[in-house]
Amino acid sequence: MKLNEEVVALLAQKGLKIATAESCTGGLLAKLITDVSGASEVFDYGIVSYANAIKWGQLGVQRQTVETFGAVSEQTASEMAQCAAKNAQADIGLATTGIAGPTGGTPEKPNGTCYIGLYYREKTKVYRINTGLSERAKNRQAFAEKALQLVKEELNG
């Protein structure tokens, strides 16, 4: 069974709903979830908030958070996950914000850096990963797979 199939099955088994808020993955998380037959039982909402104005205008992230810490930050990922869950009235909010490359990286946040926000049971955890890659497609895929892996691990206890 593929990872996305495992996650959808776990969510369905536990009667949980998931919502996504994506920046660097550009909708790939939502696609991977909805590629699975039966995903409509566990997924109602996904937003691609690529632009900062969408993060605060549509998603609900506080503008001050993005302006203070940056779009690619632990704080922004945390708020994105919380807002996704709140907006969808979902049990889980899953967010990605990062630098897929090949441009845009800095010494502090090089290409391949992603913050993954996971909101579940009134708590938010944020994970920072770095693939060490500058290849956009590979980074986006790695970010999305890591996010789903984190959901699987969280649900398995």
Give a brief outline of the structure:
By secondary structure, this protein is an alpha/beta fold. The chain contains 6 helices and 5 strands. Strand 1, helix 2 and strand 2 form a beta-alpha-beta unit.
Characteristic key phrases:
157 residues, alpha/beta, Maf protein, five-stranded mixed sheet, 22% strand, globular
Write the layout of secondary structure elements.
Blueprint: H1 3-14, E1 18-22, H2 28-34, E2 43-48, H3 52-59, H4 63-69, H5 74-88, E3 92-99, E4 113-120, E5 123-130, H6 136-155
Parallel strand pairs: 1-2, 1-3
Antiparallel strand pairs: 3-4, 4-5
- Secondary structure class reads alpha/beta
Can you summarize the main beta sheet? Answer: 5 strands, mixed
- Main sheet: which strands, in order across? 2-1-3-4-5
Terminal residue distance? 19 Å
Could you say what the CATH architecture is? Alpha-Beta Complex
